[in-house]
Amino acid sequence: MKCCNLHYVVLQVLDALYNSIHGHAVEHYAAFYSSELQGIVTDPGLMVVHMDDHLVHRGHAVFDTAIIVDGYLYQLAEHLSRFERSADLAGLVLPCSIEQIFRIILETAAASKAVNGGFMGFRALQTAAHSVNSCCCAAFCCLYCATCD
After folding, report:
1. 50, 126 Cβ separation under 8 angstroms
2. Within a domain: 114
3. What is the spatial distance between Cα 126 and Cα 58, in angstroms, rounded to a whole number?
4. CATH number, position 56
């Protein structure tokens, strides 16, 4: 595929993502960390989890939630400890240390600019041998859901 054709296709995909955003998402989803992108996005059109992710098609995943009130993430260390235990019991290896995940969550919360809201973190089994297709899916996604003030 020629470079200019690829650029056109990418623009079409981005346009389709932006045009498919539900109004609720714009109001309530403030920031999303994707291990696939290795960064935080604040545009709901880019808050995407692949269909071949085990989180989606097999439910082989763990998750945990926490709240943010008046700018404070409550009991995040306790939530991450439970998250780590759950992943271990489910046979899921975390993609990075708990300290790194802690930092990612704080950075995602900061990027959201929300004073009140909630956080939800996910971890699914991610190996090419277990995927629907041969690609390896995102190893860890941290979704920060916020009721924007």
Report:
1. no
2. yes
3. 11
4. 3.30.470.10
Phi/psi of residue 144, nearest 5 degrees:
-105, 110
Q: Which domain range does residue 68 map to? A: 22-146
Place of tokens 């992710």: 53
User: Quick one: three-class SS letters along the chain?
Assistant: CCHHHHHHHHHHHHHHHHHCCCHHHHHHEEEEEECCCCEEECCHHHCCCCCCCHHHHCCCEEEEEEEEECCEECCHHHHHHHHHHHHHHCCCCCCCCHHHHHHHHHHHHHHHCCCCEEEEEEEECCCHHHCCCCCCCCCEEEEEEECCC
Query: What's the pTM?
Result: 0.74
Separation CA 75–CA 81 (nearest Å):
10
Q: How many domains does the chain have?
A: 1
Residue-wise pLDDT for 13-44, tens only, equals 878 877 777 776 666 778 888 877 788 988 88
Q: b/e for 135-145, b at 16 or more Cβ within 10 A?
A: eebbbbbbbbb
